[in-house]
Amino acid sequence: MVMEASLILVLVFALLLALGIPIAISIAIAALSAILLALPLDIAVFTSAQKMVASLDSFSLVAVPFFILSGIIMNHGGIAHKLIDLAKLIGGRIPGSLAHTNIIGNGLFGSISSSAIAASTAIGGVMVPLQEKEGYDRKFAAAVNIASAPVGMVIPPSTAFIIFSLISGGTSIAALFMAGAVIGLLWMFTIMVVAYIIAKKNNYPIAAKNSNQNVKKIVIDAIPSLFLIVIVIGGILTGVFSAIEASAVCVIYSLFLALVYYRTLKVNQLPHVFVKAVEMTGIIMFLIAASSLMSFTMAFTGIPEALSNLVLGFSDNPIIILLIITLVLILIGTVMDVAPAILIFTPIFLPIALDLGIDPVHFGMFFILNLCVGTITPPVGTGLFVGSSIAKVNIEKLIKPLMPFYLAIFILLLVVTFVPQISLFLPNLLGL
Question: Could you list the residue ranges that cross the membrane (predicted)?
Fold first, then answer.
């Protein structure tokens, strides 16, 4: 039955996606189709509905809509330009300064919005034309924006870690946040090194020095936005509030910044912001419900155990197994958003990782990192398409300038995968 269920699951899911059916509906229909092999129609439908509803009965999920709302408020609150000015200040006096500004800006804004697409659009939409105006090659500028866009998805607070914690059975969100902070900063540094080498080789200009008055204003304007990260991480680590409570604090603080401090958001715009947050929350919650049904179907039909035996039977060498998982996850990331990929494939690969003795925090880190890399990987990574569209450069022309960045990112990916201490040293140091 395992083989038949696997074939039905994959074929129905692929067919529905090819027909343009939304991914959550495709997941639910494919899962229901597969479970009909083992259960009568009436029982299968009743059980499926029950599992989908029960999967949303989790206190941890309360954090998701709040973090989404906080990110949307910050997006609409004009925060991007203030972070761009700060990024210019940080990376402004080294070769390729505007490229470094783009990288730092993507990291800062992405961590606040928890969205690579939002960062790529808000930061890259400003920085790519500016770099071209200052004499940078437009393809290089686009490559920098694409390579650094997903950084914010691993820098806390990130909804990806919350979803992984839920699906993995309660892996510490605080530990995942701390691991993500380290890996996100390493990703930023890696891209900056590559950008520096290319900029030095091509003699790209260095930005003009800011006056002391501008420096002071830029820092003062940006600090309140960055303080959001400090509040969330500091509050969780000191025990003032939990990760779930931190999401509500994020919303309150974001509203204060947008409505009171910066005054970049009007009260009459709030209904639109709330509606957008509800829409995005509904999509994610439906994805979670549908994915839980798929997880139940796979567990009921024995698919994860069969796949685990298949992979472990292929080789007992942990390095080979991790390389296989890495390759599969990158391929998945090219065709699927990070959230549904976490929901679907965590129940498949986590048991294999645990059999190999891999720490769940380390597994969650390289699991999500792989998916993030997949979003900017050819031929169909969504981040690649968005970055290409923003820069108005054909994807074919971006592959060559992206190659040095891909090489550096893949080296980082392998180091994170095979050196767990990189992910674990800060959580262990903090006793998480």
Answer: 61-84, 104-128, 140-167, 173-198, 218-237, 243-262, 283-304, 310-331, 338-358, 364-391, 403-426
